[in-house]
Design brief:
Helices cover 34% and strands 15% of the residues. It is of the alpha/beta class. The chain has one domain. β3 and β4 form a beta hairpin.
Length: 229
């Protein structure tokens, strides 16, 4: 059995879903520490007429100290949901598959999620469905595992009965390979996909949110992201 893990990104990019596809079980690291600085958990890039469009979900931080990801609350001051929805509609109104997916965006931004994790999971499950990925997704918070670092990943594998842990090739160097060997857990790596596909608005921009390929390519997104080889 192959296990992989990732923090719950906001409208994730291709690599997130490709890793999930290559795995038997995909662990969402929802109860690890929320990063202090800039993070893909609250933001991502899309594309509009001006080029790269960055959207960020405002969250409550002031006076809260260190928080786990699943404790982070969305800040609903202002009109960020209307701005996000308007920006995405303007960016993708002319895309071939706009009508098929605009209802999801409208429902998403009218749901008034309190927790960031709930917003991101709604997005992740929707995009996995669009990409036809049926990998089992499990929240770390449901597993009662309290280790950290490499030990956390190993304990996840042991609890799930996994013999292999999958990681992005560039991230393998940050793992303690000896520790994994001692536990008889193999390390597998993969190269991030970098597909080129039809986009609106001029020159191609790589590594955008997967939503970009969904709007532009519809059902073909599976072949572009998953079967890119």
């Amino acid at each position: 059995m192959i296990i992989s893990a990732n923090q719950p990104y906001f409208f994730p990019f291709f690599g997130f879903f490709y890793k999930a596809y290559l795995s038997d079980i995909f662990i969402i690291l929802d109860n690890v520490q929320f990063p202090r600085g800039s993070t893909w958990i609250t933001r991502n890039r899309f594309k509009n007429k001006q080029g790269s469009l960055c959207l960020t979900v405002p969250v409550k931080k002031k006076g809260l100290g260190l928080q786990n990801i699943n404790a982070v609350e969305i800040c609903h001051d202002g009109f960020w949901t209307k701005k996000h929805l308007s920006s995405l509609k303007n960016a993708y109104l002319r895309s071939p598959y706009y009508k098929e997916h605009v209802n999801f965006l409208e429902k998403l931004y009218s749901s008034n999620f309190e927790k960031l994790i709930d917003l991101n999971l709604e997005i992740i499950h929707y995009l996995m469905g669009c990409l036809r990925i049926d990998t089992k997704v499990i929240l770390l918070s449901e597993q009662e595992i309290h280790a950290k670092g490499n030990r956390l990943l190993i304990e996840i594998c042991k609890k799930m009965g996994a013999s292999q842990f999958l990681s992005q090739r560039a991230a393998i160097k940050y793992l303690d390979t000896d520790m994994f060997k001692e536990e008889k857990i193999g390390l597998m790596d993969f190269k991030l996909p970098s597909p080129v596909y039809p986009q609106l608005w001029g020159d191609f921009i790589p590594n955008l949110s997967t939503l970009d390929v969904i709007f532009n390519c519809g059902p073909k997104a599976h072949d572009i992201v998953i079967d890119h080889r």
